[in-house]
Amino acid sequence: MDIRLDGISHSYDDFEVMRDISLDIPKGQILCIVGPSGCGKSTLLRFIGGLERPTSGRVLQMGEPPEGCLNPLTYVFQDFALLPWRTVSGNISLVLEDHGIKGAAAQEIIDDVLARTKLTDFAKALPKQLSGGMKQRVAIARALAVKPAVMLMDEPLSALDAQTRELLMDDLVDLWTRQPFTAVYVTHNLAEAVRLGHKVVVLSRRPGRIREVVNIDTPLAERETGDADLETAQKHLWLLMRDEARAADAELINV
Ligand SMILES: Nc1ncnc2c1ncn2[C@@H]1O[C@H](COP(=O)(O)OP(=O)(O)OP(=O)(O)O)[C@@H](O)[C@H]1O
Hints:
The chain starts with a strand and ends with a helix. The strands form two sheets. Strands 5-6-7-3-8-9 form a six-stranded mixed sheet, sandwiched between helices. With 255 residues, the chain is α/β, with parallel strands linked by helices. The protein has helices at 41-49, 88-97, 103-116, 132-145, 162-178, 190-196, 228-254, and strands spanning 2-12, 15-25, 30-34, 56-62, 73-76, 150-154, 183-186, 199-203, 210-215. Helix content is 38%, strand content 23%. Adenosine-5'-triphosphate binds next to strand 2 and helix 1. Residues 3-232 form the ABC transporter domain. InterPro entries: AAA+_ATPase, ABC_transporter-like_ATP-bd, ABC_transporter-like_CS, ABC_transporter_ATP-bind, P-loop_NTPase.
């Protein structure tokens, strides 16, 4: 299933948030969205997920979702959103129960996503027994369990410390390399964007417009921290964002 954003503009009453965003979300790739605070990144993700509708323009879903897909557009949130009284397995089975999948069929899916996220040994643990990084892996496993067409990831690593972020980026690269998935990944962090994104969409400050779409051709598995090409890409992204970020910063202070 392909997703196309066609001329999306949005205002909250007179407050214009984004203007004329058109974009194809490529299947089997990670598309990162970066931009200064308040430029509409999370709002755009909500439009893609169908949680809100734009004032004008359309989100088009073209083609069929993957076989066995229970929820084509599935969120991964910054704060993990796990039920504290359910084990790791129980948190994953919840999204399957919602679709009437129980017993052996559910267990097969749970075992598969736990293996893919290297959580097999933690199936019976409760969220309170897990570190932040492990909790986010459970949230990613839960998202994978519904075989989404597109994972919508809103700053999924921003609640984690720097080392844990590095580890989770490695995990995401590993996960994608073994079985490519499609994701729209919103982040403030340009290092994250050049490490994980096949494409990085740079939005201007509010009203958010597309300033540039930067393609990063180095295969994900070959991207090392400190890689010269990635550093060049990151610098390019920063130069695009710097003035916009300054202006957005000043605007927030003056509200
Ligand atoms: N429901 C709403 N009603 C009114 N204004 C809103 C609503 N939701 C978001 N906004 C405003 O729209 C603008 C874009 O918000 P959004 O959260 O999408 O930006 P963002 O780029 O994700 O920001 P950040 O990087 O700070 O998370 C902001 O100015 C925000 O205050």
